[in-house]
Write a structure and sequence with these properties.
- The protein is built from six helices and three strands.
- The protein is an alpha/beta fold.
- The protein has a domain at 2-77.
- The longest helix has 18 residues, at 14-31.
């Protein structure tokens, strides 16, 4: 089984997105010990690169992730998933939405024109 915490326009955090999910996943692992469970964080590469830039900051999510969770949580990028998309319409939509990842909130939720 694969559990995915998908973060699209919001930032990810260790407490909410990693620790709380791992707690639930570990409870499932204990109950269904015959199954293999993998946990992945799905983020934009832009958000991931921004987190890496903050790695020396005292409250860096990235530094904590590397120190405590890199062996327990995989990282997937939205951009990689878009590459595998067969639908041109969906791909165009996703590429546009990904271009807004760092835009102000008012622009993130604007109507999409084809």
């Amino acid at each position: 089984m694969i559990a995915i915490e998908a973060k699209y326009l919001t930032n990810w955090s260790i407490e909410k997105d990693i620790k709380s999910n791992l707690k639930r996943i570990n409870a499932i692992r204990e109950r269904y010990y015959k199954y293999t469970l993998h946990f992945c964080l799905l983020v934009s590469s832009t958000k991931w690169k921004s987190a890496i830039k903050m790695k020396k900051h005292e409250s860096s999510s990235y530094a904590c992730f590397i120190k405590d969770f890199k062996d327990d949580v995989g990282v997937l990028f939205w951009e990689d998933l878009v590459e595998y998309c067969d639908s041109k319409t969906v791909k165009k939509y996703m590429e546009y939405r990904l271009s807004l990842v760092n835009a102000p909130a008012s622009q993130r939720y604007a109507n999409i024109q084809n």
